[in-house]
Amino acid sequence: MATTRAIKLRVNGADYEGTAEARKTLVDFLREDLGLCGTNIGCEHGVCGACTILMNGETVRSCLMLAVQAEGAELMTVEGLAKATGELHPIQEAYREKHGLQCGFCTPGFLMTTYELLQKNPDATVDEMKEWLSGHLCRCTGYQDILESVKLAASRLRGE
Amino acid sequence: MASPEPKLPSELPVTQPRYVGKDTPRVEDPLLLTGRVEYGGDIRIPGMLHAAILRSPHPHARIKRIDTSRAEKLAGVAAVLTGEDVKKWSRPVFGVPEGWTGYALAVEKSHWAGEPVAVVAASDRYIAEDALELIEVDYEPLEPVVDAVRAAAGAGPFVLEGKESNLAFDRKFVFGDVEGAFAQADRVVREKFRWYRSSGNSIETCVCIAEWNPVNNMLTLRGSHRSPHLILPALVISLGIPSTQVRIIQSPLGGSFGVKTFARYVILLSLMAKKLGGRPVKWVEDRIEHLIGSSTHAWDRHYDCELALKKDGTIVGLKVKLIDDLGAFAEWLAIGMLLKPLLALGSCYHIPNVEYVCKGILTNKTPQGPLRAFGLPPHYWVLEQLIDMAAKELGLDRIEIRRRNFIKKESFPYVSPSGNIYDSGNYEGSLDLLLEKAGYPKLLREQEEARSKGRLVGLSVVSSIEPGLTGPPMLALASPKIFTRTASPEGVLVRMDAFGKMIAEVGFPPGGQSQHSFVRQILADYFGVTVEDVQVITVDSLTMQPGTGPISSSMAIALSGAILGAAARLADKLKRTAGVMLEASPDDVELMDGQLRVRGVPGKALPVPRVAGFMLMRPDLLPEGVDGNPEATYVWNPPDRTIPDERGFGRYSVTAAGAQHLCMVEVDRDTGLVKILKYVMVDDCGIRLNPSVVRGMLMGGLAHGVGAALLEEYVYDDKGQILTSTYMDYLMPTIMEVPAAEEHEMCTPSPIAPLGVKGVGEAALHTTPAAVLCAVNDALQPLGIRITEAPFSPLRIWKAIQGGQTA
Q1: Model confidence over B585-614: pLDDT tens digits?
Q2: Could A130 and B735 be called an inter-chain contact, meaning their C-beta atoms sit closer than 8 Å?
Q3: B26 to A107: CB separation less than 8 angstroms, yes or no
Q4: Strand, helix or coil at B643?
Q5: Closest approach of chain A CAs to the CA of B156, in angstroms?
Q6: What's the rounded Cα separation, in Å, for the pair B622 and B625?
Q7: Which residues of B touch A44 (CB under 8 A)?
């Protein structure tokens, strides 16, 4: 039985064509095969949310998927948020201004969920924001500054 | 001579600080936000192997046979490490008091479910884990030690081979005339409490990459290491390696909360590396390993306490009897967490007579390891709960009884019964502020109204102090031979280059608390440059100055001291050089607003970068004794520390940040679920170097405290098997459980610490458990129930409500 499969996908706007170990998780594939180490691993059982990325515009836990399940998909990781020039995305700017991170380990996951939420629902209420963020664990901030960051990002993205 | 240390930001050589004391964007953030920071798990080294650990499924079992032959034959496996190697190459893991630990891996028997039994190194982690499946181990299960109270009474079996006891530590401390105070008391309140174990659970787990070069006998360790001074002695003692042959390179940390010293695993990976003969090997702990296997569990306590009072509510004495279930080993500094309450036995209250009896007991559970706040939160909870009970029995108001016993503003510096000094504080002022901001009378009315409708609504108002910069003196009580020292050094090197930019070398990585940012704030204000002009570099264990790193709420104090000391030395060199350049006596030259200027001669001034450049370019013109290097080092140590005497009387910490918290909760009587309706805190940590950072740490400590009070618990069954090995069972607080707290500032600058700061890193975790737990018990009061086992999980509360009696 073959242990590798051919895989073709698009990550942060760049095409990738190669092989993937059939049993490799998507997050290990991103980190080890593609060298995209911005996505962090916190629990490997889908609770902490640190490994959250976007697949075809929707957040997924990349620790709970196999790489081969992303065949043909369009992925976005935290590395895809800022511009290549280093200019931060407004969501990242908001997290910085509102002190929405401390050690930063859980942050890529929070950013990706914030991105999806504000793409889909630019006028999200505070309750909706909390609902979306409740799938992520942060041990440093106590969450309040993260919520403030999301509020600020939402208002900036609405052009206010 | 170096100038005296600035005691307040206004004493810095700048007309108006631009950064110190102000919300300043953090230098750490851009890399963290873009996923470009290199955490330990991101490191790859050519030829690197990956380790996986086989763990014992039995809490207590003799290992009769291990067969690794099938695992070794698996393609991709480089080596398998077992007890045989570990026994040959190492000594048991160091612990205080000595002699109550095992090796880094189970040798003859396993001591807890989750203890390492073998390590595989392979070309990738997947293959290493495959190989674990191929290792055969024959275990002979032994009767486990599960009940620490029974074990404390002397009953067998015994956890460690060759020991006839599980009593690793047993001390009684008496301060004042405790028996006399109890004899004269009008009322004694007594209760037993139970605090179950939880832990730090940083979202990043532990990571270690070990490389032991057999040619030059150099052991290089990379990964999520913190405080090399805590790891290095453990390595030297256990591995017998010379200290200069070990290089510890610390990566940025994805949080620590005490977790990231993990000496046992650093020893284990070093031994694996030794077996690999020079190939580097990486171990990334997975979450299950973290939950069951690390030395990260903490505070598994059985309390029996008595509080003696006068009729008017004056507290005259406190007796605390404490049994702490240490797990399988008294490993490294775990005993320190039993001792730390000695620093603040009375918290914010003047309690002149205190007896503290503490026993550390070995059981077949995961060994305890350091946890943020290091043992104080359970102490503060039992004290606050006793005060609430006393208020009720004496018919006093919860506020009045606390006010009556607060250490008064004019009593500072206050010497506690155990000799520790609280530098400053204003507890009554903080309480007034808290009650005003929270609208306390209105809350009382709301509670009354809710109760009249049958709702279970409770209120609490509690206090704590956070000892800042506690250190080794405490451990002299457990191991006087090893810990006869007063030092808690923090050292830095500060340098200016030929372009007028600054470099600061520190001995710790970024880890969430923003210290690299505040190094920049202080230096930029001191030398009149911008924060962008200051580069902060983490150096490795062989390069760093003596340093302690971010433990025990110390960095605002010790690192400020180190930076200011080095800055003063550098300023002195610059003044002497400027004296030559300006043809003035160096005594007449002063540093102010980034200029070296001649006092009283307007216009005679040079910018700092020009003078630094001159030092580097024109050594021929430098004055006697000044070298061509605008660089200085400084190692700061806490002033006036003493080694505790035999009674336990000593000066242990530097600052005492005070906190007052108010909590209002509602308990759902059908489900036992607690909802926090209101949370307000006042924190007095002196001068805040970066207010948003302080606020962030307080909010994070609050969340941690909510977890400890209501959710987080490592559960063992009666056979010693751990039942909480995932985040589905071990419940971490999310945004839904953590309240949107209000935080208000009281500022009593420390008269001792540089810039008037006080340590605040362990923060609200000291206070929040007491606030939440006391509020829940207040809510349950109409039912005649008081719960005394924390955390107050919904099940525990529900059972108590169903039982209708004290749980």
Answers
A1: 999 999 999 999 999 999 999 999 999 999
A2: yes
A3: no
A4: coil
A5: 37
A6: 8
A7: 286-287
A145 touches chain B (CB under 8 A): yes
CATH architecture, domain defined by A90-157: Orthogonal Bundle (1.10)
**Adjacent-strand bridge partners of B281:** B49, B210
**Residue A103 in contact with partner chain B when CB distance is under 8 A:** yes
At which of B226, B257, B284 does a domain end? B284
Cβ-based contacts of A50 with chain B (< 8 Å): 203
Q: Report the C-alpha gap between B463 and B443 in whole angstroms.
A: 19
Contact A23 B126 (CB under 8 A): yes
Pair B253, B308 in one domain: no
The tally of domains found in chain B comes to 3
Confidence at residue B807, expressed as pLDDT on a 0 to 100 scale: 43
Contact criterion met (CB < 8 Å) for A40 and B203: yes
> What letters, b where the CB count within 10 A reaches 16 and e where it falls short, cover B145-179?
bbbbeebbeeeeebbbeeeebbbbbebebbbbebe
Q: Flag whether B291 is in a domain.
A: no
Closest by CA position to B322, among listed B343, B338, B345: B338
> Is B73 a domain residue?
yes
Asked if the structure places residue B628 within a domain, the reply is yes
How is domain A4-80 classified at the architecture level of CATH? Roll (3.10)
Mutation target for B interface from A29, A54, A103: give the one with most B CBs within 10 A: A103
Whether the predicted pLDDT of B1 surpasses 50: no
B504-530 pLDDT per residue, tens? 999 999 999 999 999 999 999 999 999
Cβ of A49 under 8 Å from any chain B Cβ? no
User: Residue A142 is nearest to which of B202, B693, B703, comparing CB atoms?
Assistant: B703
Same domain, B402 and B546: no
ipTM of the prediction greater than 0.90, yes or no: yes
Q: Read off the pLDDT band of B804 (50, 70, 90).
A: low
Token pair for B294: 């690390």
CA gap B226, B261 in Å, rounded: 6
In the predicted model, is pLDDT for residue B481 greater than 90?
Answer: no
Between A and B, how many CB-CB pairs are < 8 A? 176
pLDDT attached to residue B479: 85
Indicate yes or no: CB of B699 within 8 angstroms of CB of A97: no
Structure-block tokens of residue B762: 């362990």
Tell whether B651 and B623 lie within a shared domain. Answer: no
Whether A62 has its CB under 8 Å from any CB of chain B: the answer is no
- Between CA B173 and CA B725 the distance in angstroms is 37
Contacts of B296 in chain A (CB under 8 A): none
Selecting from B692, B736, B741 the residue whose C-beta is nearest the C-beta of A99 gives: B692
CA distances from A77 to A16, A64, A96, B38, B254 (A): 14, 15, 18, 16, 18
**B34, B703, B727: residue with CB nearest A82:** B34
**The pair of three-digit structure tokens given for residue B299, joined into one six-digit string:** 């505070």
- Residues B698, B770, single domain; the answer is yes
Domain membership flag for residue B685? yes
Interface probe for B, chosen from A30, A99, A148 (most Cβ of B below 10 Å), is A99
Which tens digits make up the pLDDT trace of B340-392?
999 999 999 999 999 999 999 999 999 999 999 999 999 999 999 999 999 99
pTM: 0.97
Q: State whether A38 and B702 contact (CB < 8 Å).
A: no
Quickly state the pLDDT bin for B805 (edges 50, 70, 90).
low
Are B505 and B609 within one domain?
yes
Other beta carbons less than 10 A from residue B613's beta carbon: 17
Structural domain that includes position B547 = 487-636
- How open is the CA angle B161-B165-B167, to the nearest 5 degrees? 120
Q: Are B404 and B321 contained in the same domain?
A: yes
| B287/A96 touch (CB, cutoff 8 Å), yes or no | no
Instruction: Pull the structure tokens for residue B291.
Output: 């939950």
